[in-house]
Amino acid sequence: MSTFVAENELEKKLIQAQNGEIEGEEFLKEMLDMQVFMPILDKHSIGGFQESKEATPLSVKDEDGTEMVILFTSPERAKVFVKDYPGYDGGLLEDFKWVIEKIGGGYGVILNPGFDVGLELEANMLEQMTKQ
Length: 132
Description:
Layout: H1 9-18, H2 24-31, E1 35-41, E2 45-46, E3 49-50, E4 56-57, E5 59-61, E6 67-71, H3 75-82, E7 90-95, H4 96-103, E8 108-111, E9 119-121, H5 123-131
């Protein structure tokens, strides 16, 4: 795998958190206001335009059977991963806080699957983050 080069503020902070340069709790607070990319399935799209008002976020089940929503630090980071999931070539770029509020309880999050620079947050951790 090639070396991961930070391309935005979220990626810079994520690397700092993984290297222990900033506390994990501080990083998570800052991450709430940073944009993430959420691949979504829109069954009714024409030429990249979304027609329906409902979109399904890309998710996978972890080893415990928990639904984990897939997010990326940018749309570019998603390109290789979504090739295995037809229909998920579009998505939303939104603040992380908005995303976790919209997906609701019971879901975890995987940020940047397939990359060394990423993280996994369990459902209970997301619930605590939205209560702060």
